[in-house]
Amino acid sequence: MGKIVMFRDQEQECMGRSDLDQLQLERLISTVNHAYRNVDFYRESLDAHGLKPSMIRSLDDLAQFPFTTKDDFRDNYPYGMFAVPMRDIVRIHSSSGTTGKPTVVGYTRNDLDTWSELVARLLSASGVTADDVIQIAFGYGLFTGGFGLHYGAEKVGASVIPMSSGNTQKQIMIMRDYRSTALICTPSYAMYLAEAMEHMGIKPEELYLKTGLFGAEPWTHEMRQQIERRLHIQATDNYGLSEVMGPGVAYECLEKQGMHFSEDHFLVEIIDPVTLQRLPYGELGELVITTLTKEALPVIRYRTRDMTRLLAEPCPCGRTHVRMEKPTGRSDDMLIIRGVNVFPSQIEEVLCKIEQCEPHYKLIVDRKGSLDVLEVLVEVNQQIFFDEMKKQNALIQRIAAEIRNVTGISPDVKIVEKKTLERFEGKSSRVLDRRLRS
Ligand code: DLL
């Protein structure tokens, strides 16, 4: 309340629901036709289901259409999902993926314009303007983070420093000397930068940073508070995925109460990942996205595997585009320990609330005999290490009890000294599931 709200395109961002529905329907019909006509995969899949693009007469009709998955991209590797000839493709990116072939994504000239416009939208929503100096510490390369944010930042007219990721000491030196006012990277790298700054004896007051725009991985509100406190900034979240476009699909405004989807370009649904039925607003399920304006790579009902819920209440910022809660993680990241579903983010939330704990942790799941065991390694502040055993044990017990309260699982907690666990320059990987070896 009382905040200045900056729009990139107020007419689109605040469009009334019935106009938005109409716009979405027109664009959906054109996307499904385009995909059917130009991508063998969609034509075969729709034919096999007895569907035709002409069967889309309302937004609800999409619910009968089949889903698209990452495997479909892999089966059509590298360019089989493209809907335009290669001569119209002007950029290629890909998503790394930990297993199997990467997914390859392409953009036409118009797609790049739309992409940079939508990224400019997310930057404006965080209050970034032409007066900002933006340090982009996402990797530049096949990953969509670096180039995606780069062209959006140029569109806003900000001064862009294309740092890319890594080289942490240099990042900090440049941040100070070039007077960067906005930092863009993963939340785990922001945390690492904050820590490296402390180590170098540089105080946040010596920097000019005001804003941080973090995304590309799940992070909790508690992690946000840590980052904001340590870097003295306002931190917002933004979401995207390569198959759908890259960054710029959804973003927080300064209310920081969920991420707005750019609904004029994407149609979003939540489904039950088991029954695959659509769920109403407010229910937790898997996010499914259909692109509405993409030329090179239209995607129909892409199963993101990200678990979240859509928030129907209007946002005080005035944007009408629906918001989603911070994704709790991917359904494939969900751990099933002794039959109980556990998201790493639940544990992060607990750890970040305990003041002696540092926001660096590792979860190791293993099987001893026929029993699953969860080991939680967490860094603690220096003081605890000078404390007597009794205090250390009390802390371990408190952490274990709080994790048990939230997840129902009794973990084996180990406290470790500061800076002993791995740090991440890009996306973090804090879970080791040793059960997957066999
Ligand atoms: O991570 C695109 C991106 C770049 C988004 C920079 C934001 C900023 P991929 O590498 O294809 O694309 O990974 C997509 O990352 O399905 C989510 O699981 C996760 N993810 C991305 N943003 C968020 C977020 C980019 N804000 C996958 N919160 C997605 C939670 C996120 N998870």
Features of the shown structure:
Rossmann fold, GMP Synthetase, Chain A, domain 3, binds 5'-O-[hydroxy(phenylacetyl)phosphoryl]adenosine, globular, single chain, 438 residues
Description:
With 438 residues, the chain is of the alpha/beta class. The protein folds into two domains: 1-331, 3-Layer(aba) Sandwich (Rossmann fold); 335-437, ANL, C-terminal domain (GMP Synthetase, Chain A, domain 3, 2-Layer Sandwich), CATH 3.30.300. It contains twelve helices and 21 strands. Strands 4-3-5-6-7-8-9-14-13 form a nine-stranded mixed β-sheet. Helix 9 (221-231) links the parallel strand 6 and strand 7 (234-241). Helix 5 (109-125) packs across helix 6 and helix 8 (187-200) packs parallel to helix 9. The longest helix is centred in the first third of the chain and has 22 residues, at 17-38. It is globular. The protein starts with 9 loop residues before the first helix and ends in a 5-residue tail after the last strand. It binds 5'-O-[hydroxy(phenylacetyl)phosphoryl]adenosine. Residues 95, 138, 144-145, 148, 215-218, 237-242, 246-247, 304, 306, 327, 330 line the site of 5'-O-[hydroxy(phenylacetyl)phosphoryl]adenosine.
